[in-house]
Amino acid sequence: MANKNPVLEAKRYVDNARTILREKALKEDDLYIDRKYVKLAGHAAYTGVLMALDGFFGIKTKKWKDVSWYKEQLASVDKKVLNNFVSAYELLHLYMSYDGAREAGIAQLGLKRADEIIQWVEQRTAPPAN
Q1: How many structural domains comprise the chain?
Q2: Residues 6 or more apart from 44 whose CB is under 8 A from it?
Q3: pLDDT one-digit tens code per residue, 92-124
Q4: Does 1 fall in a domain?
Q5: CATH at residue 118
Q6: Residues 71-92: pLDDT tens digits?
Q7: Distance CA 71, CA 127 (A)
């Protein structure tokens, strides 16, 4: 991730998650058919969230912090983004990545939370307008 904008990378990961769901997981009614691709999409989107947050907190290592570390940091900065992070963690990491939850609504809400977190980071790390 050296020399790359963490927000742009985070957005790319979330976009990749959407592509995986659309092209590989294949939705039928309100369920995704292939659990394997739901897991991959959940992992990709959650990785994007962590990239954005690491960029915000100035973390340069490639090793992720424990989820409790992110919760503690966000609790002291912004309660709303903390709540979005907890939701993203549960939806993307636990339900999708681990469980392979096939409910399309879970995926869509998880991706929405990821977008909200990344946008929050982007607004706070954007260079000031001239």
Answers
A1: 1
A2: 13, 14, 16, 17, 20
A3: 999 999 999 999 999 999 999 999 999 999 999
A4: no
A5: 1.20.120.330
A6: 999 999 999 999 999 999 999 9
A7: 26
